[in-house]
Amino acid sequence: MVLGRWAPLSHPRIEDVALDDLLRALADPTRRAIVRLLIAEGDRPCGTFGLPVAASTLSHHFRALREAGLIRQWDEGRQRMNTLRLDELATRFPGLVENVLDAPD
Amino acid sequence: MVLGRWAPLSHPRIEDVALDDLLRALADPTRRAIVRLLIAEGDRPCGTFGLPVAASTLSHHFRALREAGLIRQWDEGRQRMNTLRLDELATRFPGLVENVLDAPD
DNA sequence: CGGTCTATTCGATATGTCTCGTAAACACCT
DNA sequence: AGGTGTTTACGAGACATATCGAATAGACCG
Fold it and tell me: Boundaries of each HTH arsR-type domain copy (chains A, B) (predicted)?
């Protein structure tokens, strides 16, 4: 059986990011918390977000964010780093992400 | 059995509108099409949107938009009118709806 | 009253999502 | 090699959503 971190970490090109996926990704409070933390405190590995969900659940959300085009991930040693794709997203959806994150929950 | 247009058409107060619900409502292309048409051509009854879905499906989407705080509905004769709650929404989520609707799909 | 128009609710089906626990993979360290 | 730390994939459960057709309600019109 194939488990573990095998998948080659595919990221969508920014011009292929669908508005549907972006909005669905941002429509979850846990995922918004991840994105807000990335904005507030910069790039971080998955394990440093301190959110009240199981590790496997968190992993699911990171995948959703990555596949929606919101974050870029890469491996560094045993950690997986995350960065926001804000600049890229701004070319296709100017101001949208900031606008959502500034909104009250 | 109780069917037909009985429900008393409840609308959330704008301060009770949750970002989650708003984003989920806008994350559907049929619902975005409804909202875009309301912006482009003004208040309209449900039957005048010309979208390729069954009437019952459309009804489901109108309900979702109403309960998410995006539209206000009222009955006029046998038709049900729809208007965007743009001004109200702007007080709580400034620019958000416009930003989403201006985005490419 | 009977017929028509508009829109809804209901029931069913198919699909997607959030959550978790468990098991596995890979990197690092001793 | 063996142990530990980080993260993921898988499987399962509970719940939500999108879609449709059929039945129904109320408004209007003749």
Answer: 11-104
